[in-house]
Design goal:
The chain is built from 5 helices and 5 strands. It starts with a strand and ends with a strand.
């Protein structure tokens, strides 16, 4: 049963500019694996923006807004061997998923030079 849907779209340049200011913000928002993935890509900002959009879409799907109290690096975009993206949770988000019996989290990402978007669907 679907229990939540979230969508987000963001300007790639907006994320790129914020990340250029320093590594602290990057490490607060993204997991080490996400950072390694994005840094290995030619257009890093597109990949960071898509992952940020995924985190926002996930928060919308669970009915929470973006706040500074969230540990966004605990929402991790992972890519399987076929290239399919998914979301892995750790910390308080993993506990929340277990308490709410979210059995499956679907993720779709898309990005072009100027925009990135994500859709998340939660199932119980």
């Amino acid at each position: 049963m679907i229990v939540g849907v979230g969508i987000d779209i963001i300007e790639v340049d907006r994320i790129g500019e914020k990340l250029e200011r320093g590594k602290a913000l990057r490490e607060k928002i993204f997991s080490p694996a996400e950072i390694a993935f994005c840094e290995s890509k030619a257009n890093r900002a597109q990949h960071y923006a898509a992952r940020f959009a995924a985190k926002e879409a996930f928060l919308k799907a669970i009915g929470a807004g973006l706040s500074l109290s969230h540990e966004l690096h605990e929402i991790e975009v992972r890519v399987d061997s076929t290239g399919k993206p998914g979301i892995g949770l750790t910390g308080t988000f993993l506990t929340l998923a277990q308490e709410n019996k979210w059995n499956k989290i679907h993720l779709s990402l898309s990005h072009v030079q100027s925009m990135a978007c994500a859709v998340v669907i939660l199932e119980q």
